Amino acid sequence: MPMITPTNGLRVPEVRIRDDFWNDYSELVRQTVIPYQWEALNDRVEGAEPSFAIRNFRIAAGLQEGEFGGMVFQDSDLAKWLEAVGYSLANHPDPELEKIADDAIDLIGQAQRENGYLNTYFTIKEPGKEWTNLHDAHELYCAGHMMEAAVAYYNGTGKRKLLDIMCRFADHIDETFGTEPGKLRGYCGHQEIELALVKLYEATGNEKYLKLSQYFIDERGRKPSYFVEEWERRGRTSHWVQGTVPSPNLEYNQSHLPVREQSVAVGHSVRAVYMYTAMADLARLTGDAELRAACERLWNNVTRKQMYITGGIGSTHHGEAFSFDYDLPNDTVYAETCASIGLIFFARRMLQLEAKSEYADVLERALYNNVLGSMSKDGKHFFYVNPLEVWPEASAKNPGKHHVKAVRQKWFGCSCCPPNVARLLSSLNEYIYGVSPDENRIYAHLFIGSEATFELGSGKVSLEQQSALPWDGRVRFKVSLPGGGAGGAKFALALRVPAWFQSGRPELRVNGQAVEYRVENGYALAERTWADGDEADWLLPLETKLIAAHPQIRADAGRVAIQRGPLVYCLEEADNGAPLASLAVSADAKPAERFDADLLGGCVVVELDGVATDGAAWSDEDQPYAPYRPLAKPKPLKAVPYYLWGNREAGEMSVWIRTSQA
Amino acid sequence: MPMITPTNGLRVPEVRIRDDFWNDYSELVRQTVIPYQWEALNDRVEGAEPSFAIRNFRIAAGLQEGEFGGMVFQDSDLAKWLEAVGYSLANHPDPELEKIADDAIDLIGQAQRENGYLNTYFTIKEPGKEWTNLHDAHELYCAGHMMEAAVAYYNGTGKRKLLDIMCRFADHIDETFGTEPGKLRGYCGHQEIELALVKLYEATGNEKYLKLSQYFIDERGRKPSYFVEEWERRGRTSHWVQGTVPSPNLEYNQSHLPVREQSVAVGHSVRAVYMYTAMADLARLTGDAELRAACERLWNNVTRKQMYITGGIGSTHHGEAFSFDYDLPNDTVYAETCASIGLIFFARRMLQLEAKSEYADVLERALYNNVLGSMSKDGKHFFYVNPLEVWPEASAKNPGKHHVKAVRQKWFGCSCCPPNVARLLSSLNEYIYGVSPDENRIYAHLFIGSEATFELGSGKVSLEQQSALPWDGRVRFKVSLPGGGAGGAKFALALRVPAWFQSGRPELRVNGQAVEYRVENGYALAERTWADGDEADWLLPLETKLIAAHPQIRADAGRVAIQRGPLVYCLEEADNGAPLASLAVSADAKPAERFDADLLGGCVVVELDGVATDGAAWSDEDQPYAPYRPLAKPKPLKAVPYYLWGNREAGEMSVWIRTSQA
């Protein structure tokens, strides 16, 4: 199996997105989301719950008096914002934004203690109680996010200040935790620092950080449980409620078993995928086959048995958690935005372990559907929960669905998701390619218009990718070799064959001529000596497909979803009336596609034949139940991309639609 | 509109059930449920949560040392048991049981204070805090249940001791609550005493109790809210959680509005229907037209928009509550047993207000399905929640369905339901007939084999009813007149035309000859001068029907239920395999019926053509989603009566089944 060097090895500026679809998003992040979130972090968004994040740092730095505000992990919101800024500055220099970020970093430095410790909650509210409640208090989690910010900001600007701050904190953590006598043998209640320490190692080359990450991963789940012992030491209390609480549920944060013995995804889904991400990093960097096998088992369980068609994960809001195999209710779903982002992180690390198209398929599914759909067109409103079926009145009046919002919200008291979206979208250029210099192979995982430069064993190669996805599936790659590349460059362009392409083998043309190729692990290998100016066309005509779910997924029985390329579609009340449950797709429906430039900023809509229960023919308005007689009448249905739902008036939405025939 | 005197006016022994189907149940209650529950009340059921009920009374009576145990309303379990015993003794004298009950009543007397106050929780655990937390503490609720027990025991045995105890307590309550200066202007957080005081009035003739009931009903929902003021006085605390709590949710116990302004059922469903029952009683006894109109509005809302086909009510376990119109999820349902019993109480009172078959239809629906289904064949296991769809693994592993049990439980920590079933089933003889002496009319609401005697204006009449429901729909009434009834007796036998009879007009035969009749409010009037020995046959041949739900009930869209006579059917995994979601009823299915003497104690099973998704034909076990292609293959389906579900190995169950055509 080919081992691939990390895409992290690519300097960030070496892939630049040049793509109509995605540029809209990166511009939205740059021009709207980042400034808006800065206002939010400073409690200046009217009508939104205050963040307190900056205020906490000012108090911790001694610049202001006051109480700590917000969640115990509030520091991480500033971290995620700074991380997004780092990515954004790498692609779009912006001195004004950089000045704001530099000032924020100065503030962070002022809030750091002599010994490197940095956490505004404990500095302001519970000094002396540091590291006494790893289960609840998110100290290492916040540290991890700030490390990720430090690396991104260093990569984006070349400025080391935050990196140095976080290395000092990492050194302090390393002195505090470990198996050596006198150290705490703990680990965080919310995994995050494990993947962040890998990034810190990759940015600094300091192996201490890699080993510390390994320690946290290997220690987790050891018996007797650190969390149970810590709970006893704390007097059985919790950060979250008054009084005493039961012994911690170890499945919740995946510390019920040593990680390498885990096979089934359980517990809080964000914690899980952040941990799996670090596990895959460590498996790659240390060649740990056992850890890799665990990653593969967990990947298979998550993506084959516990993932929604939108790439959402987490079937229950109780603990924001996985439930069990094939339990994927559409209306009481959780499918948290952050969990899909974490799944994307995990997928990317799996791609680095081994280039298999399956990983990129899932990455793309989560990106184009769950994650994109979490943000409004204006970049200022967000879903935390991403349902596949919404009845607004039920969200309002049935408490079991209160977590399912029918409209995107401004900002959340626990506002992990919006900055997570920002940092993903502003670093999307890192997800497009993988490169194996030794094999002279460039993997194109995602079809996103971009300019990229690669250092291969055979020399330097540049690729310009042109793509009109998600609306059109023709992708073109233009090869540039330095100085005209006399004699050409021998390398393989490995083009992903997407799982959504279902019409035989896609056509590959080089300079207009169809060429044969072999497929390895789901990638078409275009292996040749490429000349400067060569063009490779990868033809993936998009077709609308009706999709069925595995028969064990009870929630989707007798239903179909609509998918076109990577986009999942949905019905909205705005187009189809209500109740949507009264509609069914005709079994022999031939979907028609049409680009509607005026709808939701321009999108391909899918129209197809259906039937509707004729509500007016119901026997007696006062009768809830009556002898069955067929009441279906023809009704054309109109579907829009899922990621655009909820951008009009609040109404019903449904991804899975009944079929007129079982 | 005919006003009918209360069936309560009938002495209990005057209707005796003689019916193969129902005798099994009354015998089960007498021989198993009542003795078993006595063991439970005494904490002698191995493996079941202790009740503490008797122990609490012994401690309160000073006969034993110890702490209060169980719920704050634990006294009511003993009350409901005594009420059931009262009904049972009326029909089946049993000196041994009567001795046990008499001793328990002596114990209750010993636990009563000088001033009449009776509540073991406050006597043992919080003396001095009486009446300070009406919202949470169920004092008046427990009093109400003990009043009901007192009346039933008095009616069943002629013994006044408990009646006297409860009159003393009622007098104390009357001195404590009211609009007069110096009295508390409160009312109970859980309605129950309102209907109990009506019974106490009817048993004693003391109008004070009727007026006290009126006071509680009229005071409820007045602004400013007593519960909010009480919460402030209490320091914003709650009985249920530590620390302070938000202001009470007044919808929860229907105190958000004065009761006569209410139109939509909200909040805790048992509280609601107990209150509506008392409202209907008061409307009847006081001729209060405004109150009656409120009862009719609330009846219509509950039964037309918020009731499951099984007669279950309460769509969410959050607050065991109504949610909103047409929100009737089958799998996260609540449909508490006690709520359906309360609905039966309400229906009976509405029948007393006005004989409309609709009330009896709902009563029968709730009785034969939700309520009967709550108890196991052995009488020792009970459902609290009565789902219409069960996936046992989801009940175990998805916290949103933890309340939905796949198997009946032995006894509950909060065990309101089992004794409620016992008291209903042992008083079922009171639900069969209504009589209007002035109009010389006997209403047959339920078709249950029985012997009954009626005092009409025209004299005394006895009826022997023969019925083989729910398996066969031929019902016969035999008239007996005292002393051979020379000259006959002129009266109308008003026979309910059940809503489930859908084949035109049922045939009525008198002494073998078909006779014409007119229908009034859903009752066929067989009005004539009856002779001793006359026989009236009311022919209601049972046909299996596929039933559809109102198009606004989204959970049932594209699905049908199966009903035969009053019985709703369901599919079980034991007969049909799993997942049940993969099955669909053929749109043109012709149900076949067959009595299976060996199945579940003997029942009519329904077999019909269906289709099943061929799981083996699913493209790739590892793919959760794949392009749709029809995978249906023919599959015969077998349905069993819903009330019998869950009496075999734990498995899936579903009432609403997909149809093969929309």
Q: What features would you describe in this structure?
A:
Chains A, B: Residues 442-541 form the Non-reducing end beta-L-arabinofuranosidase-like GH127 middle domain. Chains A, B: One of its GO terms (biological process) is carbohydrate metabolic process. Chains A, B: Pfam families: Beta-AFase-like_GH127_cat (PF07944), Glyco_hydro127C (PF20737), Glyco_hydro127M (PF20736). The structure is a homodimer of 662-residue chains. By secondary structure, chain A is α+β, with helices and mostly antiparallel strands. Chain A has three domains: 7-238 and 250-401 and 409-430, Glycosyltransferase (Alpha/alpha barrel); 432-539, Immunoglobulin-like (Sandwich); 544-659, no CATH class. Chain A is 35% helix and 19% strand. Chain A contains 18 helices and 23 strands. Chain A has a seven-stranded antiparallel sheet. A six-stranded mixed β-barrel of chain A has the order 15-16-21-19-17-23. Chain A has a five-stranded mixed sheet with strand order 3-4-8-12-11, with no helix packed on it. The two termini of chain A are 42 Å apart. The relative contact order of chain A is 0.09. Residues 1-13 of chain A have low confidence and may be disordered.
